[in-house]
Amino acid sequence: MSMTLRRLSRAATAGLVAAAALTAAAHSAEAADTLGSAAAGQGRYFGTAVAASHLGEADYTATLDREFSSVTPENEMKWDATEPSRGTFTFTSADRIVDHAQSQGMDVRGHTLVWHSQLPSWVGSLGASDLRTAMKDHINGLMGHYKGEIHSWDVVNEAFQDGGSGARRSSPFQDKLGDGFIEEAFRTARAADPAAKLCYNDYNTDGVNAKSNAVYNMVKDFKSRGVPIDCVGFQSHFNSNSPVPSDYRQNLQRFADLGVDVQITELDIEGSGSAQAADYTKVVEACLAVDRCAGMTVWGVTDKYSWRSSGTPLLFDGNYQEKPAYDAVLSALGGSGDPGDPGDPGDPGDGTASCTATYTRTADWNSGYNGQVTITAGDEPISTWTVTVTLPAQQSVSSLWNGTPTWNGNVMTVKPSWNGTLAAGASTGFGFTAAKNGSDAAPTVGTCTAS
Q1: pLDDT digits over 161-200, tens only?
Q2: Inter-axis angle of helices 18-30 and 3-16, to 10 degrees?
Q3: For a tag on the chain, would you pick the N or C end, based on fewer CB atoms within 10 A?
Q4: Catalytic residue among 67, 74, 76, 158
Q5: Residue 337 pLDDT more than 60?
Q6: Cβ-based neighbours of 121, under 8 Å, separated by 6 or more
Q7: Is 380 a catalytic site residue?
Q8: Pairing state between β 197-202 and 231-234
Q9: CA trace torsion 344, 348, 351, 354 (10° rounding)
Q10: Quick check: is 183 catalytic?
């Protein structure tokens, strides 16, 4: 199936589940009693790592769908899973996760494009020239398959050594291509999907130390030279031997000050009870204190499937019961178990709620373009918004992100996925990829309505 046909097929599938997705989005916008909805109220996402093999388990999917606004495939987008033989891509398991996320109005983080681990054996056998070509082909093949559908990509993962040297990790890419392979990967990724945020992701970089300094210096250099990097991911795996560092927030802030977003990408904290809850609170409060901390992802839904299951590091136990750490995170995000009646006096949406919508074309090519619609709240906070986009008759939308669409002819009505709640004057938006089909005209954005 061609990329265009695959995207159109995905769009058709999304249409079949539109009613369910709108219901989920409405719940997320109105409630403050789940992780995703509470985080959205703070302008953040709250996500989890997902394994395709668990999506058939009712309790797993029920917890996933209720609580989270973003998903990261655990292993299904890694090199060995997507390109086991050179030039032969397989996306069945990854597609299952992406399709499920889209049906629930969730964003997707792509993990990961270039990593020293979980490589098929053929990669390590290549010479430098072939390896460079294979790396670029892999990035283009994977990102091209999901173009316009992934919010953020971990472009390069774990490229620095642990310890005090701040040196690069030995890997086929480092050893054969040298220091420049990271820059090459980011430049290739930007061309492959200009709308996606491009991240560098690593562990043991949570505090100020030699390893985080090395990453910081790389990001600073990239920003100074115009190398495309949008975000830095902090894996944040903590336990008693590696606790939440006292300078965690300070470290996140110094990266944000370079002009990149920061994301907490693989959070888990071993422990139990009030001590574990207190550590989770520290992490959430640090993210909320940094304006450019876009969101948090816990590395799994339930303790029983965690890669560190013996340490019970997640927010739900093996029976999917909420742990004290869950209550602490929800509280730190400003959520509660009683979201209240939206019609009560003082609730967002009383009479004066308003918003505006503006359109920008963010990328353009012969057969299509990417469009971005920015929604800005008026003088009062809003809890949800609705925008209509009328496309020229010939054009069609193949994918849309950060919103949930329904269709009436060539009129697309978009409501929030995770991003419905806005403070007064705050902005969010959604993007889409459109096929021109012979027409280069701009779509018309209608009135934004809010409540």
Answers
A1: 998 788 999 999 999 999 999 999 999 999 999 999 999 9
A2: 70
A3: N
A4: 158
A5: no
A6: none
A7: no
A8: parallel
A9: -170
A10: no
Residue with tokens 């008026």: 378
Q: Does residue 6 surpass a pLDDT of 70?
A: no
Confidence class of residue 7 from pLDDT cuts 50, 70 and 90? low
What is the pLDDT, as a whole number, of residue 29? 40
pLDDT at 445 over 70: yes
Can you give the chain as a three-state secondary structure string?
CCHHHHHHHHHHHHHHCHHHHHHHHHHHHHCCCCHHHHHHHCCCEEEEEECHHHCCCHHHHHHHHHHCCEEEECCCCCHHHHCCECCECCCHHHHHHHHHHHHCCCEEEEEEEEECCCCCHHHHCCCHHHHHHHHHHHHHHHHHHCCCCCCEEEEEECCECCCCCCCECCCHHHHHHCCCHHHHHHHHHHHHCCCCEEEEEECCCCCCCHHHHHHHHHHHHHHHHCCCCCEEEECCEEECCECCCCCHHHHHHHHHCCCCEEEEEEEEECCCHHHHHHHHHHHHHHHHHCCCEEEEEECCCCHHHCCCHHHCCCCECCCCCECHHHHHHHHHCCCCCCCCCCCCCCCCCCCCCCEEEEEEEEEEECCEEEEEEEEEECCCCECCEEEEEECCCCCEEEEEECCEEEEECCEEEEECCCCCCECCCCEEEEEEEEECCCCCCCCEECCCEEC
List 184, 266, 270, 380, catalytic entry = 266
pLDDT tens digits along 16-75: 333 333 334 333 344 468 999 999 999 999 999 999 999 999 999 999 999 999 999 999
The tokens describing 113, both together, are 């494009």
Both tokens of 62, joined, read 């029920």
Give the HSE-up count for residue 151: Cα atoms under 13 Å, Cβ half-sphere.
Answer: 27
**What pTM, to 2 d.p., does this model score?**
0.72
| Angle between helices 210-225 and 181-192 in degrees, nearest 10 | 50
Higher pLDDT among residues 398 and 146, named by residue: 146
Cβ 3 vs Cβ 87: under 8 Å: no
CA angle 286, 290, 294 (to 5 degrees): 95
